[in-house]
Amino acid sequence: MMSKNNNQETVRRFSKPVIVAHWLNAFAFFALLLTALPMYTDFFNWLYPVFGGPANARLLHRIFAIMFILPTIFMILVDPKSFFHWIKQIISWKKHDFQFFAPFAKDFIGKHADVPKQDFYNAGEKLNSIVQILTTIMLIGSGIVMWGPDNFPKGLVLWAYPIHNIGVGLAATLVVGHIYLSIGHPKSKASLRGMIKGDVSLEYAKEHHGRWYDELIQQEVVQGKKGKKSKAPSNSGKNLGV
Ligand code: HEM
Q1: Is the full-model pTM beyond 0.85?
Q2: Whose CA is nearest to atom 40 of ligand 1?
Q3: Which end of the chain has fewer surrounding CB within 10 Å, N or C?
Q4: CB within 6 Å of ligand 1 — which residues?
């Protein structure tokens, strides 16, 4: 639904369950990373006392691992519409998605670029989501094997360790870029409001997710041309990330 905030027109982007799931996922990810760092290198040994010693750090790592799995289950149970809208979006790749990356690379380093109109999730977010899902499967799958190695064949246990490490490296690298775009990049940091308050300015929607914005106009959720009245959204939730 469209509304006004500080004289700026805004439109709903994410539902409350999406916001809760996202931040629970982010918290669990960083907690997992912090509790694991001293297990990787002595350089981070100073973290052990913070977690109450090596045994407690290991226990906490397992608790945060369960917390890391929960957002997916929570979304499927509480807000399947948003969850499957996300899945449907990230597996849909059309011409405008492939045409996104070259101009985006220019935009990323601060140069002017004409990025083609994007969907509710732009191609970069789609790719980020796909790789994050793959790394999550790698981390959780290998983590389960590492949790109870006696229950699995020796060969599988040997594979679990490098798979876990590659998963961590990939996910952490992506998260650095993801956070930069969310809080540091001058043009895209306006997206953070969506993941905190749930809505974004119409201007942001139009500029960054032009195809979603066009759908909102078509559904008469937002006012396109002058004189056209805006209506409450149709209840499909199709384009609203509800
Ligand atoms: C301080 C940390 C983080 C910040 C500030 C942040 C911010 C955001 C924002 C603003 C969005 C919405 C983008 C939009 O409107 O299209 C988003 C989406 C998303 N976030 Fe995060 N996030 C953080 C951590 C994480 C972590 C740790 C993960 C995964 C391990 C993650 C995974 C995702 C995914 C998969 C999406 C949907 C697709 C995308 O926008 O790339 N986020 N995040």
Answers
A1: yes
A2: 125
A3: N
A4: 13, 22, 25-26, 29, 121, 125, 128-129, 132, 171, 175, 178-179, 182-183, 191-192, 194-195
